[in-house]
Amino acid sequence: MSKPQLFRGNLFELEGVPPLRRALPLAVQHVVAMIVGCVTPAIIVSGSAGLPANEQVILIQAALVISALSTLLQLFPLGRRLPLGLGSGLPVIMGVSFAYVPTMQAIAEGYGVAAILGAQIVGGAVAVLVGLFVKKLRRLFPPLITGTVVFTIGLSLYPTAINYMAGGVGSVGYGSWQNWLVALFTLAVVTALNHYGKGLWKLSSILLGIGAGYALSACFGMVNFQSVGEAAVFQLPQLLYFGIDFEISACVAIGILFGINAVQAIGDLTATTVGAMEREPTDRELQNGIVGYGVMNMIGGLFGGLPTATYSQNVGIVTTTKVINRVVLGLSALILGLAGLIPKFSALLTTIPQCVLGGATVSVFASIAMTGMKLVSSAEMDYRNSSIVGLAAALGMGISQASSALSSFPEWVTTIFGKSPVVVATLVAVVLNVILPKNHSQKKP
């Protein structure tokens, strides 16, 4: 086959290889939209765990590489002709998820990164089981329930953003006017670009906001490049660098979240096919996509890659542009993976002051909460549904903010139910949705 024929792939078709000059800008667009969200959880968790700079670099590096490999598996699945394959074959981007951050923070503070990775392996197994029984489990998580969970996740991340805006708990200048000035300036840039920017300017608002805040923070002497100078130029992810610890309470908490996110992935996969391909995903695509998601998280746990999930912002790009070519998104994954193989790049990310990250991510956390609210409002807000949402959020947020109320219980109870509001909110919402009587309009005919 001649070269011109080889590169005749249509950007708006799943198969084919489009010319690099057309594919590369679109691939970079996807990377710009998700890279900050991909590395920020690793930065937050490393701070909670008290990791030194060199280990922060390794955690960020693993997050990028595992996200890239997870994306490639979804785009180019294994065993497509077998009864059970790995990967959906749909145009989606995978990255480290904020949904796990509140729980990971609690685990990191109590047990360290090894306990997170051990729980992640267990959670990956849970996701595989959800994938195998996706039809039956799907009915337990209607939009009302997933919306409540997502809303609670957003709310639970607000204190993290505020503490970061103030400079980070325990830092020398915590709460100083310089930190708040930089944080609010960063937030102003992000907000202005989100509402007044167009095209790539709007899409890369968070990245550009961090760049602007980073420049201002450098003027205050907040940036230290020592870790960049000490980092290697090239390095592969290291197997079991942080170790593995199967702490039961951590496994239960993370396992529940994996079950929720596995079901949530159905929404992203469906949004992709309906919005960009004008069809519903097949049961096989959903099953293989979730099973592949679970398996890659199990592998990621061995290499220090934190829990991944489908990225909704990239789903938005796909449904808006209708560009579904797998090579385009695969090129995004390759860029992401290469960035992860260069420790100096990962080290550069660790030099971003916490006040800058706080100013940039507070809008992300607000967006997460509002996404949950939109899902909740898609259901009729009668007395029954209002009770489910209100009680789930109240108990979830209330217990986590007054975790000393569980001090008379065993430590594992506090770890599972008292540290992260997401677990409590999920369990309360699911149980109430099952036991509370439904209105006639909500009952199956």
Structure characterization notes:
- Its main location: membrane.
- Keywords: Membrane, Transmembrane, Transmembrane helix, Transport.
- The chain crosses the membrane at residues 31-51, 57-76, 83-101, 113-134, 141-165, 177-194, 206-227, 239-260, 327-345, 351-376, 416-436.
- GO terms for molecular function: xanthine transmembrane transporter activity.
- It is a multi-pass membrane protein.
- By secondary structure, the protein is an all-alpha fold.
- It contains 20 helices and two strands.
- The chain has a two-stranded antiparallel ribbon with strand order 1-2.
- α2 packs across α15, α8 runs antiparallel to α10 (205-219) and α18 (383-401) packs antiparallel against α20 (421-435).
- The chain starts with a helix and ends in a 10-residue tail after the last helix.
What distinguishing features does this structure have?
mainly alpha, 445 residues
Q: Could you list the spans in which at least 5 consecutive residues all have pLDDT below 50?
A: 1-6
Q: From the helix content, strand content and strand pairing, which structural class follows? A: mainly alpha
Order of H and E elements: HHHEHHHHHHHHHHEHHHHHHH
Global shape: globular
**Largest sheet, described in full?**
2 strands, antiparallel
What percent of residues are in strands? under 5%
As a percent range, the share of helical residues equals 55-70%
Report the span from N to C terminus: 57 Å
Tell me the number of helical segments per DSSP (H or I, 4 or more residues long). 20
Strand order of the largest sheet: 1-2
> What radius of gyration results from the CA coordinates?
21 Å
Q: How many extended strands?
A: 2
Mean pLDDT: 87
